[in-house]
């Protein structure tokens, strides 16, 4: 049975969100509905309907995302994907996701990204694991920095909420351009997702602390974190939970981690969004004491191969001919030729025999520089010769691994 798929009107938002809450096992909260309404993009949502009942949902946020070469491209941030439990296994998610990708391409966006609630879902729609992250836990007693690290010449300063509202957006925008997969924020996003800081979102922790590291009045990094005080038998059991951490220089990194590690009455420091190649272990005297649980992070779908691959810089110079076999999105696959340079690249359709054959999932894995063509080839997911695989790794690789600290 086919279901109607369309955007919703303003008055249908509650039914849309109730479907999503039901699918995720959450209690629907009318207050959260109204708080988030200004961020909801009605022209970019899709609902599947069975009669008049919303049984499937998907939405998009209009993002700007950093790609290798300190460039920013328009990106569809896919979110709120759900299917009502009574309507599973009826092709609803497949229909909604295909329609959504078609609309993404029509709007001129070359890639879509998402966080996967389950890592087994989105590969069949052509999304590939573009980045990974470490869930980091550090016992405070072992959070000691090495003695031979750079001595920061600047100062660490805590911002008031008013100071954070005034200065942090510009600092974040400048620093996120250094890290592929980082996402820009607009004013309403800052207001609602960061500065509103509702107690409902804190899990018993304090409101946000905003701390910057400055040299001669210029911010070189910042950290946002919460605290949670606790005692057991008069022993401190407090927690520090790092929400995001940006540092442009080694000195900034040392100064900000020194601040986080130096707080009293703390037993555990955690960071839910640790980067896949973050240098934190190299800062510590005893790096084995860090607990790091590596999981998939951002999943990426290329919807316009020529445009996407012509929008980033590359790790080396070379020419690669490849074929993308894309059974899910009509017209997205084909044969292509990439002329890559460290300062940029040009990708165009080609009739030549390909050096490599990939699917959209594998291309998504490589696109931001966080994947490995060699690993995919060894797993049987890429077809081609070893020299072409090695060339793909040199071209797509980047010295800064993709890292997203923005939940959506």
What does this structure look like?
- Helices cover 26% and strands 33% of the residues.
- It is globular.
- By secondary structure, the chain is α+β, with helices and mostly antiparallel strands.
- The protein contains eleven helices and 21 strands.
- The strands form four sheets. Strands 1-2-3-4-5-16-6 form a seven-stranded mixed β-sheet.
- The mean pLDDT is 96.
- It has helices at residues 13-24, 30-36, 92-106, 161-176, 187-195, 250-261, 280-283, 305-309, 360-367, 373-378, 386-396, and strands at 4-6, 46-50, 53-67, 71-83, 111-115, 128-129, 132-139, 155-159, 209-215, 218-228, 231-232, 235-236, 238-247, 266-275, 291-296, 298-302, 318-324, 334-341, 344-349, 356-358, 383-384.
